[in-house]
Amino acid sequence: MITAFRAFSRSKWAAALLVLIAISFVIVGARMDVFANLGPKHVIDAGDRSMNEAEFSAAFGRVRENIQQQAGRPVTNEDLIAENIHVRFLESQTEQLGFLNWAWKAGIRPGKELIVKQIRQIPAFFNSVTGQFDQKAYESALAQQNLTPAMLEQDLRDQYATEHFNAAVFAGARAPRIYGALLAGAAFESRDGRWFEITPAMAGDIPAPTDAQLNAFIQENAARLRAPEFRMASVVLFSPEPGAAPAVSEERIRERFEFKKDSLGKPETRTFVTLTAPSRDAAQKIAAALRAGQSPVDVGRANSIQPAQFDATPRSAVGDAATAAAVFGLQPGQVSDPVQAGVGFAVAKLTAVQPGQPASLEGSREQIIQELRAEDIKGQTYAKVEKYEAARTAGKSLADAAREAGARIVDLPPFTQDGKLPNGQPLNAPPQLFETAWSLTKGGESDVVDAGQGQYFAVRLNDIRPSALPTLAEVREPLAAQWRQREISRRLAAKAEELAGRVRQGQDIAAVARSVNAPLTVRTGVVRDQATQEALGQGVLQGLFGQSKGQVFSQPGQGGVLIGRVDDIHAANPAVAGPLAEQARPRITQEIVQAMVQTEMAAAAKRSKAKHDVGLARQALGLSAEPTAPAAPAQ
Asked: Under CATH, which architecture does the 42-172+595-633 domain have?
C-alpha cells in the first residue's frame, strides 16, 4: 500500500489533485478570512441596513447642532464624547436600524405616495415665482443640511414605519381596570394603629469603655480607622523673577494685532426666541399668533411647546443653518415664516440686534500686551528649566542645580496619594505632583515635570510614612464616643426586640408601653400622603402600611425605635377611588405601551443581529479609536 501511494504521489494526477485542493482552500478559506476584510467598514450593521463612518459623522453632526441650539453656545465633539453622548446615540441608532430592518422584512412598508405627499408639504422645495416643485431647489435645500434626496426619502420612510408601528401597538393596548383600581385602592386605603417609641435614655447607663474594649473596637473597625500612607517630599519650583514684568515693544504689539485682528473683533449678535413645531401648519399658527402680538411664552403654552431663548447670540452659535439664515435676515420685532429645521419647523421672533465691532489696535492693545507678557514669562521660566537640566546633566545635585538655575525648593507637609493633608484638607498642588511622588522610592529624584500652563517642577521624595492604625492615645476621646453610640444602638435594638416580642405573644401594647414609661400614640384613619408623613414620620407610615392587620412592627424613629401594631385596615371608598382609577388608567396604558414598544424594538434589533463598533465611531468623529473590543450587539 505504501509503495503504491509513493508511486501515485509522483504521477501527474497527484499534482492535479493538489491544485484542486489549493483552489478549494482559496474559495472556502478566503471567503471567511480575506474577503471579509474587503469593502467599507460599517459603524453599525443591522441586517440589510447599515451606517458607515461618513453617515455616522453626518448624523452625529446634526445631533451636535441640535444640542448647540438648545444650549445657546458652541459645542464640540469632544464635549459630547466626554459626556458619553456618542455611545448613547450609537446604541439608539443601532436599535433603530435593527428595528427598521425587521419592519421592512415584516411588511411594514410605507407607500411611495405618502413620501411624495410629505415632500410636497415643504415650501423650500418650490419655486417662489411659479409655485411649482423645483428639483434644483429640492436638492440645494437638502445639500445645505448635508442630505441627499435618497437620504431624505429614506428618513421619511423610516419615520412612517416607526410611527405606524407605534400607533398599531397603542391602538391594541389598554390597561386592565384592575391596575387603576389597585393604584386608587392603595392611595385611599386608611389604617388604625398604636405605637410607642423607646429612646436612648431607656437603654440605661453605659459605663466608660476600658482600654481593652477600645483596642478591640479599633481592630473591629481597622479598615475605617487605618491611616493612609503619607509621603514627604521637596519640590523644585521654577518661576519667573518676582516683579520682572518684561517690556513689550510696539513692533511686537502691531505684529500680533495684524495676526489676530480677525478674531479680536466682536461679531454681530442677536437676541431672539424660537418655537419649534412638529408640522408646518402648527408653525404657521404660531407665526400668526406672534405677529398678532402674543408673547412667545403664551404661544408656547397654548401649543405645548417650550420657547428657546437666545441672548446676544452670534450667527456661528446657532446650530441650524436654516434657522440662522432666517434670524439674521429679520429686523427687530419681526417674526419669521416657518423654517424647515433639522427637527420640525421653527418660527423665530427677533427682539434686538447688537451690531458687530471690528477690532482696533488701541482697543486690543492691553489684551495683546498681557498675552505677550505671559509668553515672555513662560519663556523665562523655561530658561530656568533648561539651566537646571544642564546642571543636573553635568552631575550637580538637585539642590545645587536648583540654586544655579534660580529655582526655589519647597518642603511639602505629609500628603496622601490623592493629595490630602493629615487633617483631611486638600494640598494645593497639581495632580502630576502626587503621581510623581508615588512613582519614586525613598530618596528618589524625578526629572522636570511639565504641569501645564507654563508650570514646571521636580520632586525629591524625602520619606514615607506607611499606612498604620492609630494608637489608642491618639483617638481615645472620639473613639470612646463612637463605642458608646454603638453600645446604645445595640441595647436599643435588643430592647426593641424584647418589647415587640411581648406584643407578638399577645400582651396588650398599652401595657408594654407603660412598662417602660413610654407614651402610647393611638391613631385611626391614617392615610399615606405627604402631610401624614410630615406629621407622623416616615417610620410610622412604613410600619403601619408594611404589615397586615394584627401584626407588630419595629421601625427606626426620629429619636429611637418605634414599636407598633396595626389594629385595623379600611379599604378605599369605591365612590372616591373609582374616579381616580379611571383617571389613572390612560396614564398607566401609556406607560405600558411605551415599555412594550421599547421591548419590541429591542427584540426586533436583536433578531436583525444589529451591532455597532465604538472604535470606528470615534474614528468617524476624528478621534483615536479606543482599545479594540468585539462589536457590541443591540441590547
From this structure: Orthogonal Bundle (1.10)
